[in-house]
């Protein structure tokens, strides 16, 4: 899915926290948070704005923090007065604009945080080329993004994938559209997000769930805006320079947003609304290799290859294209009748429609063909040769016509009330988040036939392909025949496979804080409780016509003839121009011409649609106690917190188990067929966890800090792995089950330690930090076959053998388990940011921000997708990651260039099935330039993926080519107008 975003002007406000008064940069809410037109905030922030900040802070000291998971509430501390005055003086001496401002803002937030964290601010996101929140997050130390269709979507933190990341919006847990718990950040328009923080060390008051870390996104707080009223309108057009290589793909798109915020009733009532829309094309030229299987290779004259050999299932070569349209809405209303009470309600909604197609070839089941001159690698994998049918129609060359449609939506809303009376602060919050995903995978395959137009057409039997994989380069490929003749080609198979996910989270929490002003060690005590209910459902269905290999006689579903009205010849261009031409087929038009309409449903004939459908219910009760400390050690300040979080979890899943032999209950499928072989089941468990944590920050002097953090953390299993359904088969007197899911899974648990040294420039213009982290993860989740498995001990009913009158014997169980292959993940993070205010004249606008991360792990998983079983590393971990941005702003002009590099890593990619592969190293370069005319009007030019960086993957080694995919450069030109 695609990516996005941008922001605008900020103003600084001082408020207090539990450990003393600190300086936090506050956003001009809508003007900054909803500036989508791609203009990096270039309006000058004058020194007089800085001087006004301390005065404004006194009025605002009791306000803000929408999220109860972010920094603790306001409290005055006399011993910090001098430090506060010094900081305010330093800030008043700085004048920064545009992207420079977001860098300074992020530095201040990191400096004053009570956990180890990194932050991106609204100006940061809106200051493109980070057109998505995922892009912006991936510029933080230890954070990387995974590109899906060329756009950043999911992220990894410290070498751990999205399964280990907790995501919240305004402090509330977010439901996910991915079908698991992984957040797809391109669902969230950056125009509507004000700030995002990555918590790398937890605290007791933070919602559990982030072994890798927690990402907390925030929308706006209207009463914190610097202006009484503001409005913003943004519009920019986009162009993709590879779109003309893909037949039927559009070239142009747009992004727009509009917003308004205001303060009313003597600044006691604030309101903000925002809207953002994106429409853009996505294209990709693609070669995609498929996994390898241990199969005997057919050679001429019954020859046999020596040793164990592994043959790929085949490969695809396709033109991919389509469009993405996303609309987002945000509304906030905030009421503060007095300094002691604040009531805030907020809502967020986003819907994302993705329509995509793939046209080209699929060479399928190479092992069924006869090889001539096979190219065999050292590990036994065959990566080239000539493969012929020789009468075996189960090796074939298909023309592919895939049509996929994805409709996703996220809705979140909540009400937050806070009351402060003397040392007491009580905060209550209720909210919900709902995510839906409706993905329809439509496939169709054309095959060459002889005898089309007769009563008995037959698939040709003389096909052959000659190929040679060339590592991470375009392979050589040729066919012995053409695939564009309408008199031979026919539509042999059409399949429609919907996947529907629904995920909903509802929660209520209460937090109480008692502030201490003269204790000398403790600054506050906190406690609270949270109750949440999360429900997840998955629904699978199917509609099919024809046969993969044109073997239609048994079904009577004959191949469908093609015509010029529903098919046309397409030739590859660009990187794949050496490949043969093919027929692009409008499958729906062919079906309609034959009186056929797809009608997907669940059916017993394909009982995986029933087994893989089901629901999961989670009830979570959490409570915590936390002590905030602020004391002196060795004449230096030590602050932080320590606490304990208790989490009681109840997880139960509902599904269907295949009992066989009519030993279930009567159930009717969507085709009207009734079966007695299946039984509804509900399985699961309850468990309680205790999660201690400590965060300490030792101030070596005014500009240097040493942090230490330790905690036990947890992440719950992916929701789709908790399903309870199970298929089965009976082998003699043994009962066997499959499913590769389990409602008995434990969470991921880890013990982690963090040490961070942070140096801040005396003039607040820069920072240098070095961090070390260590996590020991107890276990991971993997699919495993257990044989024999004690079904009764697990509460799984075994059917009766009619021949004996006794339950069948235990057979194998293909399930998901918590393995015993835990291990450490450790690494270092180095970061440097600097606004060079010391330079003369116009050079003051120059700045740099960058980071380097190194991670390693002893965790090894196993895979056989490359052929021989081999150990692979931890999915999501890149040993070396580099992020760098050079920026410049002066007299209304603002520009920057950003570079992101990550080493090879392991992740899944979607082909015919999900495949775990190595991703080759990649470097992504983005550029932006903008100019602010000073009257509210700004213009912007932006180029994303300047070097047209492809995605390249491979299996066990680079000789076994996986995916080669080029997405093109994306250009933007637009304007923004602010009032």
Automatic annotation (TrEMBL):
One Pfam family hit: TonB_dep_Rec_b-barrel
Domain (TonB-dependent receptor-like beta-barrel) ranges: 501-946
Annotated keywords: Cell outer membrane, Membrane, Receptor, Signal, TonB box, Transmembrane, Transmembrane beta strand, Transport
A GO CC term attached to the entry: cell outer membrane
Subcellular locations according to the entry: Cell outer membrane
SUPFAM superfamilies cross-referenced by the UniProt entry: Porins
Bilayer topology annotation: Multi-pass membrane protein
InterPro entries hit by this protein: Beta-barrel_TonB, Beta-barrel_TonB_sf, Plug_dom, Plug_dom_sf, TonB-dep_rcpt-like, TonB_rcpt_bac
TonB-dependent receptor plug domain span: 110-213
Transmembrane intervals: none
Signal peptide: 1-47
Keyword Transport: yes
Family: Belongs to the TonB-dependent receptor family.
Name used for this protein in its record: TonB-dependent receptor
The species this protein was found in: Dyella soli
Species classification: Bacteria, Pseudomonadati, Pseudomonadota, Gammaproteobacteria, Lysobacterales
